[in-house]
Fold:
Amino acid sequence: MMKKSEYNYFVAWNGMYMGVNLMSGRKLFLRGDQYDRFVVSSDCLDILEKEEPELFGWLKEGGFIVEDNVMEFDSLLYRRNLAVFQGDNAFKMTILPTLDCNLRCWYCYEKHVPGRMSEQTMERVIRYAEHILNTCPMFMFDLGWFGGEPLLYFDEIVYPLSLKIRAMIQERRLQFFHQITTNGVLIDSERIRKFKEIQLSHFQITLDGHRQCHDKVRIGPDRKGTYDRIVANINELCREMDDLTLTLRINYTNKTLKDILSVIEDIEPENRHKITIAFQRVWQTTEKEEENEDERNSIKSRFETNGFRVLWHTNRYGRGNICYADQMNQAVVNFDGNLFKCTARDFTRTDASIGFLSENGIPCYKGEYYGRYNKIPFENDKCRACRLVPICLGVCSQKFSEGGYGAVERFCAKTELEKSLSEELYDDMYEYVTRSLNL
Structure:
């Protein structure tokens, strides 16, 4: 016997329907009559299987219908535990060489204090990496650099630590994923040569709109704008690094969207296939400005037709945890040796840390550290009854450890998720209708 999944979500337009199963992430376009037979009608699914076997097959394959004995919420709990305690067979270490930065963007949440990682702390980091490699089962080591601006101390910290950690990883014949979040100002030809040497090939670089808007926000120490320098460095990275993957994050407000398409012409056409555009609204404007869906869709389409991959929606399906910080096999190492889980923290507050590195590189966790994983944020009556729970999962482990189930209620984002999900499905329907049906 089969039953309808509890986690199907559909939107309608002009007698057509686009749906997604939030457990599988599979999407399905249905005509009005097909939608009526599956969703509206109370007919037994056995009749649907006999009369429309092709539709039934699509629904079954996509998880829109499941075996009668399947307990989907229990499956979600299992996925969560698997993701948190085993992850993806990788360990993710993020290192902050400094909290200082060469820019002062008005919306940045970081406290940019002067200082850098000491030689003693660097030795602790090396021992910590060796401890992880010797004790943590994994297939891949994911090394990331964050800040502050990590390239401020590339030669002193990033480069030498990367060489030593990479050598240990190669000795054990593990996969190596190496990434950095940088403003892109301090990239140059010599550093690109060293990037290749240490296999640093995954970059996230940010622009704040096109030149005029960007240069009002991202101003260098010389009080000059940085747009042209960053774009030139992006183009050089793409030309010189064959295995490069670059996420170009474009922070936007309604005002800066006006000239955003001008960015396209500044990126050399042969480089665009290496770049993923990730649009991110400046968070301080989220509640003050309404999204213009037509404008957004037009911008997304223009970037895609010019060779870029574009990310605008953030819905993820079938996941077991909200973000990397929810996994056991992950840590953020501050420049002073304190340990954190999340990169969106006040790193000047030692009371917000989860522990610290001892002299021999062994992590010393605070007493409550392991307890944060024993309780599941979405295992409560409200979340259990919500059909959006597979893409929400309650709240992140950081907020849950600090606020308990009260945080689940306080940070409930059901309205925002429904809006984002509907927008995504309408976008998919638009693409299906215009491309597949040639209308």
